[in-house]
Amino acid sequence: MEPTARSYDRWPSTWDKPLLNLHALIPSSRVNGPGARLVVFFQGCLRNCPGCFNPETHAFRESLVCTVDEVFLKRLGEGVEGITVSGGEPFMQPAGLKALLKAAKERSLTTVVYTGFTYGEILEDARLNGCLGHIDVLVDGPFEREKKETTLLARGSTNQAFHFLSPVYSIEDMYLPGRVEVSIGRDGVVTGTGFSSLSFALDSLISEGGGG
Ligand code: SF4
Fold it and tell me: How far apart, in whole angstroms, are the C-alpha atoms of residue 21 and residue 112?
């Protein structure tokens, strides 16, 4: 099914309040936008882009339900300059997204948002466009596997456009130091984030390291 800007209407109304249903939070990452950033992954996306890096975010189920204050009080890493919102589809929780972005701005944090909707679709929908005034950079459009980004620009595919909605950043700021960040937890669990899949990153590490 082709998602539309109104698709979120079909989700429980409780999700259209400033309570967030998130997939995950990363307190500090350097591969999700300029500098060190708190990364907020929303839960739920209808689009099913082939090759999506985060298929586990697609299901519309309760995941990590929290308030905006909890995000900043418990999960904000030291020295971060802003938040990056990704998903899942952030605009399918428009009230929560707006509250999150507003709170980030009140804390003098910059905001970068990734969405599968186009800027035009968001502009035209009164329930979505209230978020735009709190966004520094909007990266729009669904991931297209055949147009995969191969440079260090912070986007998954070349059809996705950067919309600089404030003067804070320019295109030079959207070049990353790498396309993926891999971390190994105390429990030995390996996780990855960024603009490549974890399996691709691990394959690259193994081939670069020669298996030794
Ligand atoms: S819009 Fe984003 S989260 Fe949704 S399927 Fe496409 S790439 Fe994945």
Answer: 19
Closest C-alpha to 100, from 74, 129, 67: 67
Q: Domain of residue 105: give its range.
A: 7-178
Lowest mean pLDDT among 13-22, 31-40, 138-147: 13-22
Q: Does some domain include residue 63?
A: yes
- Does residue 198 lie in a domain region? no
The torsion defined by the Cα of 147, 138, 192 and 8, in degrees rounded to 10, comes to -90
Residue nearest to atom 6 of ligand 1 (CA): 49
Quote the pTM value: 0.85
Substitution site in 54, 114, 159, 160 for ligand 1 pocket (most atoms within 8 Å of beta carbon)? 54
Which protein residues are within 6 Å of ligand 1, measured from CB?
Answer: 45, 47-49, 52, 54, 57, 87-89, 116, 142-143
